[in-house]
Amino acid sequence: MINIKAPFRAAGSFARASVVTSMVGMGLLMGGAGVALTTPALAQAAPGSISAAQEIANKFSSVKTLTGNFVQFGPRGDQTEGTFYIERPGKIRFNYNKPSPIRVISDGKSVVINNRKLDTWDLYPLSKTPLKLLLSDQIDLSGGKVKSVKQEPDMTTIVLGDKSIFGNSTITMMFDPKTNDLRQWTITDAQGLDTTVMITNVRTGVRFADDMFTIDYTRIAMKR
Fold first, then answer.
1. Is 118 exposed, middle or buried (0-12, 13-18, 19+ CB in 10 A)?
2. Is 70 exceeded by the pLDDT of residue 167?
3. What is the pTM assigned to this prediction?
């Protein structure tokens, strides 16, 4: 367990204000479309650092299923909690604890944010979100994606960017240096807004119900 004296920060930015509100600053979707590319691009990390980062990513991507709890710190200091479920490639589910009405589901092709109280559904292509990188069957950090790697006794921090997906935004992944287990990720958008998702009580090698990652496209179509 990592001793955290203050919340790590990361960010999520969304193209429409209504989506920002409904997603409670989730920090999971922030595709380059609609985001002003106003910040300078980060330089690529040194080859040795890239190799170290790829080794960690290989270990992380070898875990095909996992579940646990999460705590999210939003850009305005708000805090929410819940349970997450991951199945590679491309599938994830976030169930937020009450009173939050939000749940997030990716079925490998699309990501939907559902506000159960308002019965709203915001649908995005998985390929245009940072989740694409996190949920890939094999995480490929070539092509200048690795911006920096910082190795410390209690944490290994890898900053990633992919202009085709994130614009000038970045995603920071923090790993336990002893086990290479992911502890949290952070997303920083072009406007500098920050959101953190920190995960705990992680279990791997689990099996999920067949409908765990199902998106009801028929219902979404009816709401439009």
1. exposed
2. yes
3. 0.78
